[in-house]
Amino acid sequence: MKTVLSPIKLPPSLEACRIRALPPAAYYIADFISEEEEQAILHKVETAPKARWRQLTHRRLQTWPSDLVKDTLLDAQPLPDWLENPVVSRILSIPVSDGEPNIFASSPHRRPNHVLINEYPPNTGIMPHKDGLAYHPVVCTVSLGSSLCLNLYRSKEDGALDPEPLWRILQEPRSLLITTAELYSGYLHGIDPISTDVDLSEQTVANWSLLRSASCFQDGLNQRHMRISLTYRDVLKVSKLGSKLGPMFKRP
C-alpha cells in the first residue's frame, strides 16, 4: 500500500533557486522532498542488506546499482524505485530556466544512473576532493536527517590546497543541492569533521537567502546529528558486462 505524501511545490525553474554568491552554477531547493518522503527513504536506507554497506574508517556508504570499476558502471540495471521516485522524477521535471530543458538534458543518458549514499555521524567529514572524470559534470545531492555545511575550496597557483574554504553551503534536511559546470570542475568540496557548524550567517553561508529556516541558525550554530546524503550522478561509461558476469560486480 502506497503512503499518501504531502504535496511539494517545486520552483518554476532552477534559475529561481540559483546560489548567486557562487560561480556558475549551483542551485539549492530547501523543500525538495516532504517529511514523509524523507522518512520513507531513510527506512529503505536503514533496512538495506548489510552487504550493501561498505565500511570506511569513520563512516559507511552504499552504491546503487553497483560500484564503479575503472570509472565504468558495470551494472546497467535501473535504480530501484525508492531512489527513482520522487527524487529523479522531480529533478527531471524542473527546467534550468524558462524554455530550457532539465539539468541532465545534455548528459549521455539524460538522467542520473548512479547513487552514492553516505552516512555522516557528528564529528565525521570528508577531505576536500573533486568528483573526477567518471561523471557528467552535474551532481545532485539530497540531504536527509540533519543539516551540515559543505565547504568549497580552490587550489593555489602552486597546486597546493588553500586550507581556508572560499564558500560554505548549508544543506538542510530534505533539501536538494545541484552543482555543475565551473563549480564542479574547478573547485574542491569537503566536509569538516566537527560536531557543530559555527559562525553561520548571511555573510558566511552562500545560500543563506534560500534556506528554509534561516531563523534556526540565528545564533550562528548548527548542532549536527546523523545525516544521510544521496548523491545522484550520470556515469559516462556504462557496460552490460557486469550483468552478464553475474552478481560478483554488484551488491545485493
From TrEMBL:
Keywords: Dioxygenase, Iron, Metal-binding, Nucleus, Oxidoreductase. It is found in: Nucleus. Coiled coil: none annotated. It holds the Pfam family 2OG-FeII_Oxy_2. GO terms for molecular function: dioxygenase activity; metal ion binding. Residues 111-236 form the Fe2OG dioxygenase domain. GO terms for cellular component: nucleus. The keyword Protease does not apply. The keyword Lipid biosynthesis does not apply. It comes from the Eukaryota. Belongs to the alkB family. This is Fe2OG dioxygenase domain-containing protein. The lineage of its organism: Eukaryota, Fungi, Dikarya, Ascomycota, Pezizomycotina.
